[in-house]
## 1
Amino acid sequence: MIDLLIVGSGGAGLSAALRAKELGARVVVVGKHYPTEAQTSMAQGGINAAIDPEDSVAQHIADTLASAHGLADREVVELVCQEAPEAIEWLDRIGTPFDREGERLAQRRLGGAKAPRACYAQDYTGLKILHTLYDNALKMGVEFVDEHFLLNIILHEGRAVGATFLDIRTTQVRQILARSVLLATGGYAKIYGKYSTNGFGSYGEGLAAAMRAGAKLSDLEFIQFHPTALAQSSILISEAARGAGGKLINSQQERFCDELATRDLLARAIYEELEKGLEVFLDITHLGEEFIEKNLPQERKLAILYEGVDPVCKPVPIKPAAHYTMGGIDVDRDLQTSIEGLYAVGECSNAKLHGANRLGGNSLLEVVVLGKRAAQKALDGGMEPQESEYERTRMDRQFIHTLFGLPNKIDFMERREFLSKIMYRNCGVVREEAGLKGVLSVIRQHQRELAFMGIKDRSQLYNSELVQFLEYGNLLELSEAVLVGAIQRKESRGAHFRKDFPNTDDRNYLAHTLFWKEDGVLCADFLPIKDNQIK
Amino acid sequence: MKIKVRRFHPRFDPPSIDMEYEVPDGLVLLEALDLIKSQRDRSLTYRSMCRSGVCGSCAVRVNGKEVLACEYKVQHGDYVEPLSVVDVIRDLVTDKSKALTTLARAKAYPLDMAQVQMSEEDIKLIERQSDCILCTSCYSSCPVYEEKPAFLGPFALTRVYRYVADKREQAKKEHIDEVIEDGIWDCTLCGNCTEVCPQGIDPKNDILMLQSWAAKFGHFNPNMSSFGSFGLEF
């Protein structure tokens, strides 16, 4: 029997897998792509740890709490920030090639940090951490199951005993049982489609599956918009560009903000300029070709390719784009969800580290520190499941079969594109009640029409349209919850900005938004935060 | 402009055909494929994830040369095919799993890392090699891998060299011992892998470096010993 089933092979899943192996467990990592084709590979800026002599763990904690605007759990923040230097040491010990300055680890200052705190490897920090974790996973004999798409969590007497997957290559449904299940499936920022910096994949199937299984989700309305994505393609220009002195200017050549402010403030400032009908540019020309080639080679290549602009010579046109989802599957300090035997870690979870707004460099830190912790806690709470084919598996097999029979009268890809546009316009950087309610009614309409959609590709062999259709279903389920959260929270806090309620209202909304499903119907409520958790 | 895509489905008759599609000017190949799939032909099958050259999922061949679809600007008349040598599953989707197994076979992972002070220069030595995204382009271009499926292949050997060259790694000899059989001496140093690597990695040079490390540990190039039987002195 598998001790720990990990869904997702990014930084969180692999950190958990390594820890589980250290503890002698049998661990299987299931992913919808190949292992290193994960969103973690796209993280550029760095991973935070207070190791600079000018910095301190206390300052790291204070910066993280300030950015969280009351929605972080102080204990979690303290735990993660305290373990950060050890996490860097561990990553270094297992081979991560962090950049050095002279003989010490190089660190750069990212927005919202009072000191240079992010360790990095050029603009490939996530990529190099991910591949180092993968190398070590191969060394430790972690088993991988590739190109399997998560469908549902299997429950038995209220406990998670495994999950069902679609084998993408064969379109067969299979179940994998384990003593504990850990979701590390990543965030859902790609519900904003081409208005997101994320890769094709961040559609939140882990969250949707957990919600269908009855788990609670929280704070889904808190979605970070990265201020500097390329204007056409939404490809990310790392915060490192601003950290190094990049300037933001509008088409009238004016600077209009402090470039090192937190991402929420900057995204809003840029969005306002765009709303005025101006263009906004990131100007790094003064940094010089040598610096840009050394520190931002990826960004340079992509700006030339996708925007036709060489940032060495000209300012690059940018816009804010959905980048990171702070909300997720609600977990306690042991990363356990509200379902026994089901754990979640990384961007798919809400461990209350980032609160209402994440600091750059804190998410790579989260996946390593909490990934390892999640594995340990999940193994502690393991229990042998009964080996048999579960009803869930039969239902999911029938469900996939049914999808092939849908009439396909309405094109889901057109719907998906339309939805991403109105989500960005109405539930993006700036929100307002009327627009939010409008989008919600569109989503409910789309949900009713799902049975009239379907797929054109009838092949059972590597049917990527089928996978996209499943992702679209999850996207609808999650977008609905995001909107309900954004409508209910009649205040502004961190990344959630309501034009009609521009102030923070601690009296009514110093609370986590909780989401869950009852008989298939979405429910939401606030859970007030006790004072001692934030002070 | 028009591009041609080689389609493949093992159950179709014939399994392989070339199809031509009209696409607008100025697109990156992945954007063109997305456009074809969403608007013209839902059955067109390919992989993609990050669209920014770091996940390694979208490698294909254009006009016979390996490229990442997300980093290649479409030209009129381009002919898009799946990677070569590796097995094709459907259309542009290939089976990467065999190439990936070379990593474990070559023990392309840290064996015995010590805590050693590293300098900027020490990191420089492994910076390029650790840029690898495992896109499999190098295997597609490798004439040795084509002839001899047991060959460890470019990205596995580059990754072994990445650890050999890592100042923290203590088990350099063990690394070398792992890449003698079906490894460094099988490479013909043709340089195709270096030519096609989207990350600018030079596996050919990394293999040469491994060969010189091997000589240091007393391994001989078996191809050279046959010259020895001619009694030639070098």
## 2
Amino acid sequence: MDPTDVSDPRYYHKVVDCQWACPAHTNVPAYIRLIAQGRYTESYLLNRQSNVFPGILGRTCDRPCEPACRRGRVDDKPVAICRLKRVAADLRDEIRPFLPKAPEIKNGKRIALIGAGPASLTVANDLLPLGYEVVIYERNREPGGLMRINIPSFRLPASVLDEECGYIIDMGYGTPVTSLTALLDEGYDAVFVGSGAPQGKDLELPGRHDAPAQVHLGIEWLANVHFKHVERIEPRVIIIGVGNTAMDCCRTAKRLGAIDVKVIARRGRKHFKASPWELEDAEEERVEIVENHAPTRMVVENGHLVGMEFDVLEWTESAGRQTSRVVRSVVIPCDAVILAIGQENAFPWIERHAGVEFDAQGMPVVDRVTHQSTNPRVFFGGDAAWGPQNIIWAVAHGHQAAISIDLLCHGRPVTERPPEGMTLVSVKNGLHSWAYDNDFDPAARQVMRHEELTRRFRDLHVEVELGFAPEQVATEVSRCLNCDIQTHFAAPKCIECDACIDVCPTNCLTITTDGCSETEMRTRLSAPALNLEQEIYISHSLPQTTRVMVKDEDVCLHCGLCAERCPTAAWDMRLFDLLAPKPGAACGREELVHA
Amino acid sequence: MATDLDIGMNDWMVKRLTWDDSYRPDHGKVLDAAALEKLKRFSRYHDVDGDGIAARTLPGVGGKGAYFVRGSGHDKHAAYTEDSDAYRELVDRLKRKFDHAATLVPRPAYTRRPNADVGLVTLGSCDAAVREAADRLADQEIIVDVMRIRSFPFADEVREFIEAYDSVFVIEQNRDGQVRTLLTAELGIPRDAMTPILDYGGMPLTARVVVEAVTGALSEVTA
Amino acid sequence: MTSIVKPPVRHPSLRTNTLGLTLRDYEGVMSTLCAGCGHDSVTAALVQAAWELALEPHRAAKMSGIGCSSKTTAYFMKQSHGFNSVHGRMPSVTTGAAAANRGLTYIGISGDGDSLSIGIGQLAHAIRRNVDMLYVIENNGVYGLTKGQFSASADVGSTSKRGEANEMSPIDPVLLALSIGATFVARSFSGDKKQLVPILKAGIAHKGFALVDVISPCVTFNDHDGSTKSYLYTREHEVEAVHAHYVPVLSEISLPDSDDAVRVVAMHDGSAVRLRPTATDYDPTDRTSAEAHVRACQDRGEIATGLLFVDEKSRDMHELLKTPDRPLIDIPFEQLCPGSAALEALMDGHR
């Protein structure tokens, strides 16, 4: 096999599972270490570099990092990465002095951002300090987009939103956009569409429109609650759909007077879209989750909704395909129904002749990398680009779109993406002394403290999650394995004494003869490398025997014992820092540092 | 040399030996497999009842009974340690064990005559010569008591005996008065309160050496 | 010396042996030897061998004397008995332990200083008595605990770290053992676990004294250019004379080996060792042949390794001394002590 090229930043980046899984590539281990050191402000600022909204995401992120977390592979449960982010946000000091400022003298380029949600705000965040003039168009009075009107305040307090959006926006706006062409005619150099997927999907069923006052669309209803157009709901409520919006709806209903709330799902629990922790939180609040029920009809008597009819399904799986069989049909009595089965994009203000092509599904044709539409001056990101995703994705889109806009405005092809870089620095302080805590802490994942049930229902705005207590923070940060402290190997120094192999607690290392396929190599190791999603590292040939050092990255604890027991420092522990591309850098940054 | 050859080359007569068939050895605190099973962890040097003696196990008995006998610093679990507190705990236990042992070891053998005002302290093979010396001193109207120390650490009676006499002699067969030094170090008895009688010419001790030393010393005091 | 405790986490695909234990259950505490010490690899090989043999940890006793090598008994099988005895006195302590309890597996770990200088008399007599034990010499040619003076196994001409050459004739434990009747003699290299692990397993299975001399480089004082016990020198000069393959159950060797050169030695416990000499005319069951071969290699500047000699028909200490077939703790006191009648008869016999 070819030796692994660790000068390619992607290799070590992939070892940092959480950072690799995060669409915005948040440097998780580094910010957790800063929390461990009590440096909350720095931790917050490090977060903000990549994910822009640490306080918001620390409460609402879908956490793609946590299923990826190595700790979950070695110790049952991942590090509570998301809620540690909130710790940094909660305990930080004033950060405004440390934020980049928009220069007085502008660069002469004007950018329009449509919608003041996370994607647009990220674009603004990235471009304003470079001297761009940025104008945000938003139909609501306050910025935040779905973060504000669709996420209930018991999960995300308005104050957190105000603060983090406020870091970006200190300007007046409030103009809804009615015409893209009109906007383009105003002389903007580029337009970024981050208007979200603002329309709830409807469900056409018999009786759907017979009692309109009692049937709501999930995100619209949540928005109405936000704007105080809705302040009560009937006692018995059925929610159709089992995504995170459904979870927000059922829990909000509980706070607006509903007593009996049922969430109805077409399939079994393992297929639910909602995050497991959101399901848990809903169930803690005595919401009933009903599986395997397919809605067939709304039962309306004398213009009044009295229940909903369902087919009870039985699912069987064969050859990877799920098929259902109707077992019987039931009517579940209710006084209101909330449909939370998804969201759709809507661009009534984009004229057909604006140069933006749409596909058969009515979605704009957008390049996956550059975010450019078929009109070179128009870019899409967030839910507006490819339909509903999570906030962290919108942030990632915003960063990439900002790079594209920067390239466009400098007359460079948007496909000329700036490369990722890295720094790789030894963390050796001295004999058995490293610039990180390498001792493994067997502590279990800390459980989030919640507000008491009776108190949470008193007010719609009582935040349910109380954050981690200080001792919980201390424990949880120590669970992080510091995967960004890389095991770096220098083959020419190795004397093949086997010390690293003998000491490795998780049998990651092997010295063996080369000359076989990766598949075979994976079976030859000290412990077979069965997790194919994880790389195996192959060294250059070793000086004494021409064999190779092989490392299975899967359950490496980054404890540094291989480096501690290495007599020749062939193994070293090195801090990997991904240098993510940024606008500005795109047009003339010096060659990025390679290790 | 002649003595060595005598012992090595000739048959010696001894008194007929006896054996008590009712004797059963007392192994002390030994944990068997069942007792070990009840423990969460066996700690070889953990003193649970305050007498300084920790229970032991026999090799191969019970899965939890294994421990490592080592010369390097260890804790009560017999595990290697460089922790001062853990080490001190262990050494303090040994002190308790030592003190406790002093109450269990063989008592000294001694005489207590009502009119004696001289005490002779000795040990081991000196005993017969010292007892003979005591008889001869009685002939000279010097009444002495004799104590043969039979064990170390010293039992309380050792101190009581020494403190009971105006004149105390420690009779031993070495140049430096090692027993007297031990009595001073262990019991805190002033060195000068005990007069050494040292015999180290290589031949067995005789009563004459003792008698002469005692009478000589006593006449010096009265003179 | 390492600063942290080895994390308890295991690789998810780590297998268990017939006792349900993983390799990690046979580990000891963290080594405090220098990083890269060959002894740590020998320790790892012992862990591997004990795990593969599924030794019951509490039925094994690890014995050692003094020196870097003798520290290693703490670094494997932490659930086993261990005895860190006086310098060079491990063979006698083990002889006593084995006499009292013949039911345990005795693993003695010593070094070239402990065995070939201060303890050479002890070693010689344990070999003569054929004490049933594995005796590993972690041989690095220097006194590592006292700044690297030459030991008795240092080769003539080999230089110290500062450059002076050794001029005194070395004691080769393999030749010593062969000359005084050892019944199992092997040599291996800490950097070659493929060879070492089967030898250790066979040595444990052997009934009698099994001497395994392991070249185990001292990275701190004897891994330089002039050394004849460095990693590089050993790799370049090692010539495997006999390759041993340990077979847990003899009956599994069903067919006669197609390779004429292979000898199958049935071990006392029902296992077997397949021995494949790599040199022609070499018979690992013939003491004279083995001795001649090792000496010839030495003359050529080669290090003969492998399971060099085995005599499985020999009688061990217990057979020689006609001791009871059970450990003393399993024999009731009434049987152990012959009582007053026997004493009377003894005394009458001397009248």
